[in-house]
């Protein structure tokens, strides 16, 4: 058995274990589990050599993320294979969209360029579901597909750039790769807070006292919400901009946990915070109800 197969099996086993251990998150884990496993497998099997992009020092220091300096989604990326794997995983995790994903897969096979067009049209706006009538599927299903596929491709880009960006200081609360806000903060060794991007999964360290969303730094206006009996999961909240960020303390954890799984298993905190009137720093398919 190869290491890749073992890793994928470990991830699938961990999803099954968490679905039992955290009953409040089991439906989310069952829905997003196939997507996580298929994305993990796709990235592990992606044979292309590491591709890096030039960083403009002035723009970067000025807070302009890489995606606004150059194109990160390219026509020669493996759109057809990636699109088919994402559609298949969505069909498995979201039975209500299985017919939509079957239609979409048929279209992708007939017209391989359709995925690139879907993920790059209206790049600067959120109006991408305007493309729905052309594909003939539910707009909500198409949006889930577009976001999942974009996430997969940008995760590859971010992984390729991790080493390069490690030497460039970044002090913003949004992602230096793609400009998205984080969906999760992870406390690691020496108490350093790492923010994980909600789109490309890039991680960067960030002050624990400052709100990543509005840059506000005021102990009176920021807080941590704890749930009685839980030690790993909390949420950072900011009264100034009324947003929150799920936070997991992984310092001392010898075996790193999969960040997507941490976020899914803390979904009960999303519900509590949203009932209190806070919004997630990054609205994702798994934290908006
Ligand atoms: Zn990002
Ligand atoms: Zn704030």
Which kinds of small molecule does this entry bind, naming each only once?
zinc ion
In helices, the fraction of residues equals 40-55%
Beta-strand content: 5-15%
Question: Quick check: average pLDDT?
Answer: 91
Secondary structure layout plus pairing:
Layout: H1 3-21, H2 26-45, H3 57-61, H4 79-93, H5 98-110, H6 114-120, H7 132-135, H8 139-166, E1 182-187, E2 193-197, E3 203-206, E4 222-226, E5 233-238, E6 243-249, H9 259-265, H10 267-275, E7 279-280
Parallel strand pairs: 1-6, 6-7
Antiparallel strand pairs: 1-2, 2-3, 4-5, 5-6
This protein binds zinc ion (ZN) (2 copies).
One zinc ion (ZN) is lined by residues 211, 213-214, 216, 238, 240-241, 243.
What does this protein structure show overall?
This protein is an alpha/beta fold and 289 residues long. The protein has two domains: 46-166, no CATH class; 182-280, no CATH class. It contains ten helices and seven strands. Strands 1, 2, 3, 4, 5, 6 and 7 form a seven-stranded mixed β-sheet that branches. 37% of the residues are buried. The model is unreliable at 124-133 (pLDDT under 50). The chain binds zinc ion (ZN) (2 copies). The site of one zinc ion has 9 residues, from loops.
Features:
289 residues; 2 domains; seven-stranded mixed beta sheet; 10 helices; 44% helix; binds zinc ion
Short description:
The protein is α/β, with parallel strands linked by helices and 289 residues long. The chain contains ten helices and seven strands.
């Amino acid at each position: 058995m190869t290491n890749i197969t073992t890793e994928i099996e470990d991830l699938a086993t961990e999803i099954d274990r968490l679905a039992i251990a955290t009953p409040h998150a089991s439906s989310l884990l069952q829905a997003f589990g196939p997507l996580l496993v298929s994305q993990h497998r796709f990235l592990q099997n992606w044979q292309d050599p590491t591709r890096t992009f030039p960083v403009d020092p002035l723009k970067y220091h000025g807070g302009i993320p890489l995606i606004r300096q150059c194109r990160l989604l390219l026509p020669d990326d493996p759109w057809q294979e990636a699109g088919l794997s994402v559609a298949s995983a969505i069909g498995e995790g979201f039975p209500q969209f299985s017919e939509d994903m079957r239609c979409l897969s048929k279209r992708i096979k007939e017209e391989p360029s359709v995925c690139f067009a879907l993920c790059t049209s209206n790049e600067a706006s959120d109006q991408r579901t305007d493309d729905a009538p052309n594909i003939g599927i539910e707009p909500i299903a198409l949006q889930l597909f577009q976001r999942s596929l974009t996430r997969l491709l940008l995760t590859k880009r971010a992984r390729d750039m991790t080493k390069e960006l490690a030497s460039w200081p970044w002090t913003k609360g949004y992602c230096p790769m793609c400009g998205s806000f984080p969906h999760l903060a992870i406390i690691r060794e020496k108490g350093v807070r790492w923010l994980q991007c909600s789109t490309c999964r890039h991680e960067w360290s960030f002050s624990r006292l400052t709100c990543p969303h509005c840059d506000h730094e005021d102990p009176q206006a920021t807080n941590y919400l704890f749930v009685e009996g839980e030690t790993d999961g909390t949420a950072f909240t900011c009264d100034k901009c009324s947003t929150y960020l799920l936070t997991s303390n992984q310092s001392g954890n010898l075996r790193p946990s999969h960040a997507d799984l941490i976020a899914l298993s803390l979904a009960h905190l999303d519900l509590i915070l949203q009932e209190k009137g806070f919004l997630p720093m990054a609205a994702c398919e798994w934290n908006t109800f």
